[in-house]
Write a structure and sequence with these properties.
OB fold (Dihydrolipoamide Acetyltransferase, E2P), 1 helix, extended, DUF5666 domain-containing protein, signal
Length: about 90
């Protein structure tokens, strides 16, 4: 029994730590602009400006005027905590 517990503990510690990935979203629409660092897609009246990196995988020819589906994830660039307002009354 001790061997099994030790083996399970060793296996758990050997697993690489994996970070939780943010939810993936996608938008399909007309490509308005393509550059090395940006893809702009229009869906209806809404424009989506999506950052593009060297890791972005592109299948087919991505060019202005074409229809494309882009998968993206939201990433925070800054976060500022605000007071909740409770107990912080001014007299």
């Amino acid at each position: 029994m001790k061997r099994l517990a030790f083996a399970a503990l060793a296996a758990a510690l050997a697993l690489p730590a994996t970070a939780r990935q943010p939810k993936a979203y996608q938008v399909t629409g007309q490509v308005l602009e393509v550059s090395d660092d940006l893809i702009v897609v229009q869906k209806g009246k809404e424009k989506f400006e999506i950052a593009r990196t060297a890791d972005t995988k592109v299948t087919g020819e991505l060019k202005e005027g074409s229809k494309a589906t882009v998968e993206y994830r939201m990433t925070a660039t800054t976060a500022e905590a605000k007071a909740d307002g409770k107990g912080a009354k001014k007299k």
